[in-house]
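To close the section, here is one more complete example, presented without commentary so you can practise reading it yourself. The ligand is flavin-adenine dinucleotide.
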Amino acid sequence: MIPAPFQYYAPKTVNEAIGLLQQHGDDAKLLAGGHSLLPALKLRLAQPAVLIDISRVSELKGITANGDRLVIGAGATYHEIATSEAVRSGCPVLAECVGQIGDIQVRNRGTIGGSLAHADPAADLPAVALALGMTINVMGANGARSITADDMFVAMLTTALSSDEVITSVTVPILGKGEGAAYAKLRHPASRYAIVGVAAYVKLDGDTVSACRIGVTGAGSVAVRQPAAEAALVGTSGDDDAVAAAANAAGDGVDYLGDIHASAEYRQAMVKVYTRRALTEAVRRARG
Ligand SMILES: Cc1cc2nc3c(=O)[nH]c(=O)nc-3n(C[C@H](O)[C@H](O)[C@H](O)COP(=O)(O)OP(=O)(O)OC[C@H]3O[C@@H](n4cnc5c(N)ncnc54)[C@H](O)[C@@H]3O)c2cc1C
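Output:
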């Protein structure tokens, strides 16, 4: 399939990109790795009159450790994140998550900013963003602001971004002693998208779970936290029974989708199974 005709711009700076977004309004779309947008253009599901290719904007590149945080440029590819020593040592769950996305072509082109902006219901990163409490840093015509992962994912393919905003970077916590996080996914055998994906973060104070965050993707139209399951684990020792009870409480707030790959009922059952797996591994890592 051939996309509908479009005008192409390749700005060198974020400010230039914002200017183009302002100038062309809803007719314009940012292009990063293209691994969600190009298929949509080719299928003519999207027909923007203007494409603003931000893949050469150097401000959007790079991964740096800054105190207890990693700052990852929106244009960092999955491959760059998966192979970054700073990410692998500071926040291994993120490296593991992006290392499981798609295939090598997708990982070489797809970007963290593109995935978070696209908010595909089956994307992996939103679950990990929710579990880690990532911050999404954006710039727009009205300046810079930060959006918490909890506020980012609004509905299917819909985020809290305004149409003139560009994600510039993502702030990710570096996990310390007593903290552990893990991602478990039931992957589509061909595309590797999440049929169900669960990310879990656990913090231990001594032998007691003092904090827990769980993000679920793939199961419904938008990635969501799991407050009931999180609350069920906090205050426990995080042993197998406590993890099983918490996993059993998972699933609230998910508007389960059914398709040719998995029924809504199957996804509902798998959310509990994968929550249990992710929590078990997160607790194991938190124990060190
Ligand atoms: C064969 C195949 C398999 C895949 N498998 C998986 C998988 O297993 N798991 C998974 O999670 N994903 C998967 N994907 C999707 C892939 O992760 C996409 O790359 C990602 O969803 C989009 O990132 P991108 O950089 O390619 O963005 P693009 O496709 O260029 O853009 C996507 C959207 O985000 C917007 N955008 C891009 N960058 C920014 C920015 N900095 N600020 C604001 N808006 C921006 C664009 O305007 C567009 O609307 C797969 C894709 C393919 C083609």
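Once you have examined the tokens, check your reading against these statements. DSSP finds twelve helices and 14 strands in the chain. The chain has three domains: 7-53, 58-173, 179-287.
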